[in-house]
Amino acid sequence: MNKQKDSVNKIIEQNNQLREKLREENKKYYEQLLVYIRSAGLFYDDYEIENLLLQILQDIISAQEDGQSAEEFFGKSPQLAADELIHNLGKSSRKEILKLAGLVFGISSFFELLSALASPDKGINLLVLIIYGLLSFLFVEIVFFIIHKSIYTKIIRGKVASFLFTWLICSLMIGSFILIEIFIPPLLTVYLSNYLGIFIISILLIGSVILAFIRSKKDGRMWWPFLPFIWILGIIGIASRLPVTENWMSSSDGKITAAVLTGFGFILFWVLTYLCLREKRE
């Protein structure tokens, strides 16, 4: 499986290099096609998708060398042609599907666990962790669907309307998590002692750094933006449980400080994610 993953990464790298040979209008045409096919769904085989995209790119480059534009070669209705190609793609193995679902579930549950550990009186509601993981996977599917459909179809016209639509989707996502937190009964809530909570937080913080280092060899820096936000939540959790700081953290000043730091960590996460994606594109 690691060999196939390496092959996929090599194909993507080759694709990125060859794309620079395209003229501007052909590059725009192909990159729309690329996003449309890649965002078709979570469960298609990555190796087949990237092989298909590379083959299309090589054909377009050959056509360009013969004086044809990408539109003349591939057609004026790329969506119809792409849909037919996507329909013939193979699905990922059950193991890969479970691995992907587990990754999304694990990331969501991990952050909810850290958030719960940051509030000693709150406890860890295991039922909330499970529902958060399932809902996160659903939202990832929805985001992929919106991106996929918006490539060739204007779902919302106008910058203001697009901004409001994006704001509405984000608000619904955040609101769903808040409602779950409020209304799910504490049937499976676990309360930890302060020292056990500090121990678990410390393990999670150290483990996150080790995992980021390990994954960076395969995925580059895509996991690094998570670390500042994780450590901010972890430090808040430890400070809320230490005898010398727990009283201050439970005061109004402490809660405001924790909220500001959490907001700063969230903004920092998005900024670092944007920089990583821009670096990857370049």
Automatic annotation (TrEMBL):
Q: What organism is this sequence from?
A: Clostridium luticellarii
Transmembrane stretches in the record are: 97-118, 124-148, 160-184, 196-214, 226-244, 256-277
* Positions in coiled-coil regions: 1-32
Top-rank lineage group of the source organism: Bacteria
Q: What name is this protein filed under?
A: DUF1129 domain-containing protein
User: Transmembrane helix: is it a keyword of this entry?
Assistant: yes
Q: Which UniProt keywords apply?
A: Coiled coil, Membrane, Transmembrane, Transmembrane helix
- Taxonomy of the source species: Bacteria, Bacillati, Bacillota, Clostridia, Eubacteriales
